[in-house]
Design goal:
Order of helices and strands: HHEEHHHEEEHHHEHEEHEHHEHHHHHHH
Largest sheet: 5 strands, antiparallel
Strand order of the largest sheet: 2-1-5-4-3
CATH superfamily of the largest domain: GAF domain
Number of domains: 3
Helix content: 40-55%
CATH topology of the largest domain: Beta-Lactamase
Distance between the termini: 81 Å
Shape: elongated
Number of helices: 19
Oligomer: single chain
Radius of gyration: 30 Å
Number of strands: 10
Strand content: 5-15%
CATH architecture of the largest domain: 2-Layer Sandwich
CATH class of the largest domain: Alpha Beta
Length: 417
């Protein structure tokens, strides 16, 4: 007797109801996350891996099978997915696909071509807190497997929120303090100190904001949760907070630490993840975090031509372009020193380099000797040029404020695009 077209669908529904009953009982009996995943693997007849959103293994159940997959093998050995695997998830668009779909996704391309797998995100505290992967064994996946994956993720969402380690899936106490500071909801130094004491947070002497943003405006930071954990492992005393423009790394260090060590590591990370790092100046009081973060945001809004080709931008390096962005054309004219305009016009009309000469003199600490060496001219020639500059525009080489005003005018002129 031939089977009707409806019979396979009825069998699938019957199988799903059986699985639903077993899995729901596991939840009601308050079994562990490990037991639920093991049961799910048995019902699927397939290996399953459950990781946090930064790819640390929570449970990995192979049912005694051999899983010939490099991602599975590395995770079994180290307890984490490898950085190469995470990079593949990004480049092949897997992470974006999983995050953009509400239900389970079949991965049978890229890293999943040899062994197809069902992937799905798990919402914990209203955000993606974990991922599940069901690896295909000795049969193709059926519709009941996708239904079951959806159900397993719903149950795991509840169980992970109830678990004793629930803090790792939600916002950490330190992160919540930083978030309140950035939103302006924590403006009292006294209240901040109290919250830090409750959190048992005893920071080192100095802080520094590092805003990590994509080098290209056409994309966001993929696998940002994984990158967060990588940053926390590399910068032990620091905090990482997701922000609208990327990731905010709050560096925390002692006064005797060489900041170049951190910058070298940040430059390596930026190159690996195709990011740009915007660095604030160091500051001693956490209550001022919002101001330094906003300084980093201001740097991110500079014209792209000023940022291209630079993995790390320090605020002190782009101070004048930032001021140029703030000033209107009329304000820039009003703030430009008259003596500077006289020298600039003279250089244009006569082919001289008096503006460059005076700029170098100021940058060398008003040392005739150092400035002459930088310009590869004799010391006496340098002295004569400075005297000629005074004659032309009336600027005294002994007037510190006038020299500062000259330098500001020159920098604004040379950095505005």
């Amino acid at each position: 007797m031939e089977r009707t077209e409806a019979e396979p669908a009825r069998e699938q529904e019957k199988e799903f109801q059986y699985r639903k009953q077993r899995l729901t009982d596991c939840l009601l009996q308050k079994k562990s996350v490990e037991r639920l995943v093991r049961l799910a693997a048995e019902l699927f007849g397939c290996p399953i891996i459950l990781t946090t959103n930064y790819y640390r293994v929570i449970v990995q159940e192979d049912l005694g099978m051999t899983v010939d997959d490099p991602i599975w093998s590395y995770a079994a050995k180290t307890g984490y997915c490898s950085e190469d695997a995470v990079a593949s998830f990004e480049h092949e668009g897997i992470t974006r696909t999983v995050l953009s779909n509400e239900g389970a996704v079949l991965l049978d391309w890229g890293v999943g071509k040899a062994i197809p797998r069902i992937l799905q995100k798990i919402q914990v505290f209203g955000k993606t807190g974990a991922y599940i992967g069901v690896f295909q064994a000795d049969r193709p996946f059926e519709s009941v497997d996708f239904q079951t994956t959806d159900l397993v993720c719903q149950i795991l969402s509840l169980m992970l929120e109830w678990s004793g380690e629930s803090g790792q899936y939600g916002m950490q106490v330190q992160e919540s303090i930083l978030s309140d500071l950035l939103r302006g909801e924590l403006s009292s130094a006294t209240l901040l100190g109290e919250r830090m004491r409750i959190a048992q947070w005893n920071p080192l002497a100095l802080f520094r904001c590092a805003l990590l943003i994509p080098a290209s405006t056409a994309r966001q930071i993929d696998n940002s949760d994984y990158l967060r954990q990588s940053l926390l492992r590399r910068f032990r005393a620091s905090c990482v907070l997701p922000v609208d423009h990327g990731l905010l790394l709050l560096l925390n260090f002692s006064a005797d630490r060489d900041p170049e060590d951190d910058e070298t590591e940040l430059e390596r990370i930026a190159a690996h993840y195709q990011l740009q790092v915007l660095l604030s100046s160091p500051f001693p009081h956490l209550i001022h975090l919002r101001s330094y973060y906003e300084a980093c945001l201001t740097m991110s809004q500079l014209p792209r031509a000023l940022r291209e080709g630079k993995r790390i931008l320090r605020f002190e390096d782009v101070l004048f372009p930032v001021l140029g962005q703030i000033f209107t054309d009329r304000q820039r004219r009003a703030f430009t020193q008259s003596q500077y305009r006289i020298l600039l016009d003279h250089d244009r009309e006569n082919g001289t380099e008096y503006c460059k000469t005076l700029r170098t003199y100021v940058e060398c600490g008003c040392s005739v000797t150092k400035a002459s060496q930088n310009l590869y001219i004799h010391r006496n020639t340098m002295a004569k040029r400075l005297s000629r500059i005074s004659e032309l525009c009336g600027l005294s080489m002994e007037d510190g404020q006038a020299l500062i005003h000259f330098y500001l005018s020159d920098q604004l002129h040379n950095t505005i695009l």
